[in-house]
Amino acid sequence: MNVILFHEGICPSGTTWHQRLREAVDEAVLAEECGFDGYAVSEQHFASGEAITSSPEIILPYVAARTERLRLRIASVNLLPYNHPIRVIEQMATLDLLSNGRAELGGARSNNPYTLDAFNVDPKLTREYRDEHLEIIGKGFTQEKLEHDSEFYKIPPRKMSPWPVGRRPVPVHLSATSIESHEEAGAMGVGAMTGLSILGWDYAQACIDAYRKGAENARNVAGAITTRQALFSVGVNCHTDRATALATTKENTVRFIEVIMDWMTKLAKRSEGYEYFAAIEKIRQNMHDLDYLIESSPYIMAGTPDELIKRARRLHDMGIDDVIWRIDGMGHENNKNALRLIGKEVLPELHSWKEHAQSTPSSTWNTQ
Question: Which among 353, 343, 357 is positioned nearest to 310, based on CA atoms?
């Protein structure tokens, strides 16, 4: 099982944006030293100090220059008109070249109404934009000249420049929250990153099963077939004392739960296709109870090394290949302490587990 450090640039009280961005890069470098397999940065807009990673395509090359081994993933670029697919192709190819073949692309529809409204995007069209972007990206990574003609994009024949390392497509993954979107990701031949496991272990398993169902007849949409599943967890912390682990991460975790509770319920009411978001209401009465949130789902990972291993083992047995752990928002020193302890006590065990037979081996992505 691979473990990917995930940042959104949360600024605790007293931390400047300038300080946090530089700290995040230092933490990525430390993560490589501690044995983490990858580093991921999300695309977030208008979140102020709650998340300042609005330009992952700039952050990741900076990290690439200071690391040698970490896989580098945008998780996820919003596949919407303000991120034209040609620019996404160019950015990923450039990152892949600068990092010696370590780039990975994560894509998403975007389910934040605050962002969608700012860029004047109709939430009802996000699925169509997603599908169109993936098709164009697949063409751009594989065809001598990219050409596309549709309602959304009219691209005359153009030779893409530059190409990724070895002229092979970078691995593509899709952030997915609904059971339906997991099956769609599998059918399109891209990896899935499960992002709504707060709805419970059973919901996470249903998403995993749906992805496998879709992948049985996967089409090559994004340039190459990647059959691999990851799961996002937030509020991740590790300490030899469980109570300390939870107390250190509680403030930023509960604040995040409050934020997603707000925009998910709003989007569920106003936009067709997001009605399932209303299911998050079932946790409202326990949204400040960290013990409940940890036990009821894999969405929050905090505890001792043995507890993190136990929960990761359950995910691996369910079919998850990679965990994407957001170790962020606790303050620089606390973040680093968690990375060191996870590297020493948790990663050796997770790395010893065999990859699933039906999954694309991560080793095939290495080009050096």
Answer: 353
pLDDT > 50? residue 368: no
φ, ψ dihedrals at 181, nearest 5°: -70, -25
Beta bridge partners of 160: none
Q: Residue 276 — left, alpha, or beta (φ > 0 → left; ψ -120 to 50 → alpha)?
A: alpha
Provide CB contacts within 8 A for 109, sequence distance 6+. Answer: 78, 79, 80, 126, 127, 129, 130, 175, 181
* Burial zone of 155 (CB within 10 Å; 0-12 exposed, 13-18 middle, 19+ buried): middle
Cβ pair 79, 109 in contact under 8 A: yes
- Helices within 143-286 (DSSP H only): 179-187, 201-215, 242-270
In this prediction, what percent of the chain has a pLDDT beyond 70?
93
pTM attached to this predicted model: 0.93
CB-based contact 178:268 (threshold 8 Å):
no
Interatomic CA distance for residues 190 and 227, integer angstroms: 6
* Residue 286: band (very low, low, confident or very high) from pLDDT cuts 50, 70, 90: confident
**Amino acid sitting at position 112:** N
Token code pair at residue 102: 């370590």
Task: Give the strand pairing for 154-158 and 146-149.
Answer: antiparallel
Phi, psi of 44 (to 5 degrees): -125, 140
Contact 94, 62 (CB under 8 A): no
Q: Count other C-beta atoms under 10 Å from residue 129's C-beta.
A: 21
According to the model, what pLDDT value does residue 16 have? 95
All domains of the chain in start order, with CATH: 2-365 (3.20.20.30)
Following DSSP, what letter does each residue of 294-313 receive, concatenated?
HHH-SSEEEE-HHHHHHHHH
